[in-house]
Amino acid sequence: MTLSPTSPIPLYDQITKQIKDAILRGDLAPGQALPSIRQLAQELGTSVITVKRAYLELEREGMILTRQGLGCFVAPVEKGHLETTRRESVLAPLRQALAEAKRLGMTMEEVRQLFAELLKEEER
Amino acid sequence: MTLSPTSPIPLYDQITKQIKDAILRGDLAPGQALPSIRQLAQELGTSVITVKRAYLELEREGMILTRQGLGCFVAPVEKGHLETTRRESVLAPLRQALAEAKRLGMTMEEVRQLFAELLKEEER
Amino acid sequence: MTLSPTSPIPLYDQITKQIKDAILRGDLAPGQALPSIRQLAQELGTSVITVKRAYLELEREGMILTRQGLGCFVAPVEKGHLETTRRESVLAPLRQALAEAKRLGMTMEEVRQLFAELLKEEER
Amino acid sequence: MTLSPTSPIPLYDQITKQIKDAILRGDLAPGQALPSIRQLAQELGTSVITVKRAYLELEREGMILTRQGLGCFVAPVEKGHLETTRRESVLAPLRQALAEAKRLGMTMEEVRQLFAELLKEEER
DNA sequence: GTGGTCTAGACCACA
DNA sequence: GTGGTCTAGACCACC
Q1: Separation CA D15–CA D35 (nearest Å)
Q2: Which of A40, B1, C95, D31 is the most buried (most CB within 10 A)?
Q3: Of B120, D42, A99, nearest to B112 (Cα)?
Q4: What are D65-89's pLDDT values in tens digits?
Q5: Using alpha carbons only, what angle is made at residue B111 by residues B106 and B112, rounded to the nearest 5 degrees?
Q6: A residues 4-33 closer than 8 Å to D (CB)
Q7: Is C71 left (phi over 0), alpha (psi -120 to 50) or beta?
Q8: How far is CA A94 from the centre of its chain?
């Protein structure tokens, strides 16, 4: 896990996002312990407060649980809910692209072509 | 043109974006005069400075020109450049979606399906 | 004579400067008549007010004289004064360059080299 | 650092310029923290916004980085780029002087003499 | 503590 | 009329 201190994205958001991705990817399984706040802060070269805020955010979203004195753990979620979240994470920017295309008076056919070009690039 | 004062996006960014879209869409032709800073500020119920900042940003990006004492005008841009910018505006979120998918360990085939579903929804 | 309406330099300044240069260059001799304000305004595609302001500026600097009902004329200046002004016009930016070099902690030797390089480029 | 409130040069430009010079001179090293916006504003007896605008301009030019909640820092630039910028800062007014000389029908030899005289004055 | 945004109102220069 | 600059003071988000 790495942080970009110059990015316009807040540090705590960067942490939140990376942990969330790991959970959605399945790299962090439900029930698994997260690194302690202090440990992670040291590892990332940032302050304890920043990591704390990231964990707080994740807890608010129901992704993790905090058990006093024991640490933080990945929340036990249904597989279906996880899958939905995964899909939504990708659908959101796709929707944004379509909205932008509409605002610019682009036809859906044009967007489809742009998307096809992009996929080809990826496959190279 | 309308502003959402509750949006997390700064007002001046909202203004910048909408004018940029209008130019890319062709609704504002090169050489055409933009509404005066004061007039637009009054129309949007915002401050003169907020509009000015939006115009300043557009000028920096080369989208508009400002002539002291006369007003602001859409910059004379090559059509090719305009088209490139149009494409990029849609490509950017599409790229973001692909990057997100990769981070989540999704296959390109899955992304293609999500995109197809979205387009179907749109056509309804 | 041409004007750049998008330049940050005010239109009236652009006019003032070009007439001044013509006088210093000797293209406009002392006593010679300048084009009428209206004529010049039309030629430049600008307003009468702007040209008037340029002429006013030149009169204030003693470069031209206005004779009611007759028009404007290049002022009769001593040749020595003209020569001094010519030198000063070039010395001013040279001084600025030296001042800038000092502020950046550059040695005079370095500046001399930069100047020599520039002259070589010119001779090509 | 000092400001001249009567100068035709905007205050924020004066600030921008002085900080830029300090960086090019090497007085402010890459990574070094700049004074906080509020602190500098108080020190200069000007408004917070004026300083902020100066910093914004420096950031756009890539001279400094700003990190939310931490402050502003001199950007890590390659030494070569710094040197190029240094040279250009002095070359620009030199070029202007040559252009002016040409407009006045002066020979390059005359300009060379003017430059030599200036350097002599400096050495006194 | 830091920077980011926004307001209301003033004064000046330009066309 | 237009844009360009500056002020004083407010509220928010981040670290």
Answers
A1: 12
A2: A40
A3: B120
A4: 999 889 999 999 888 999 999 999 9
A5: 145
A6: 5-6, 8, 10
A7: left
A8: 16
Predicted confidence (pLDDT) at residue D124 exceeds the cutoff of 80: no
Per DSSP, the three-state class of A90 is helix
pLDDT digits (tens, 9 = 90+) for C20-65: 999 999 999 999 999 999 999 999 999 999 999 999 999 999 999 9
pLDDT exceeds 90 at position D5: no
Q: Which helix (H) or strand (E) holds B120?
A: helix B108-123
| Cβ pair C37, C51 in contact under 8 A | yes
Tokens of C110: 């370095």
What dotted CATH number matches D11-74? 1.10.10.10
Name the region of C72 (left: φ>0; alpha: ψ -120 to 50; beta: rest).
beta
Instruction: From the CA of B12 to the C1' of F4: give the distance in Å.
Output: 18
List chain A domain ranges: 11-74, 79-123
Q: Which residues of B touch C5 (CB under 8 A)?
A: 67, 70
Element (H, E) at B13: helix B11-25
How far is C-alpha B24 from the geometric centre of its chain's CA atoms? 8
CA angle D66, B10, B83 (to 5 degrees): 95
Q: What is the Cα–Cα distance from B95 to B102, expressed in whole angstroms?
A: 11
- Classify residue A31 by burial, with Cβ atoms within 10 Å: 0-12, 13-18, 19+: exposed
Q: What are the residues facing C74 on neighbouring strands?
A: C64
Alpha helices in chain C (DSSP H): 11-25, 37-44, 48-60, 79-103, 108-123
Neighbours of B5 (CB within 10 A): 9
Which tokens go with B98?
């692909």
D95 neighbourhood in chain C, CB within 8 Å: 118
Q: If you average pLDDT over residues B87-94, what whole number do you get?
A: 96
Which residue has better confidence, A8 or A18? A18
What count of residues does chain B have? Answer: 124
pTM confidence score: 0.88
The string of pLDDT tens digits covering residues A4-15 is 988 889 999 999
Say yes or no to pLDDT of A124 above 80: no
Q: How far is the C-alpha of A106 from the C-alpha of A116, rounded, in Å? A: 16
Cross-chain Cβ contact A112/B123 below 8 Å: no
Eight-class DSSP state of B46 = S
Q: Which amino acid is at B15?
A: I
Model confidence pLDDT, tens digit, residues A19-57: 999 999 999 999 999 999 999 999 999 999 999 999 999
Residue nearest to nucleotide F4 (CA to C1'): B68
**Main-chain dihedrals φ then ψ at residue A61, nearest 5 degrees:** -85, 0
**pLDDT tens, position by position, A84-99:** 999 999 999 999 999 9
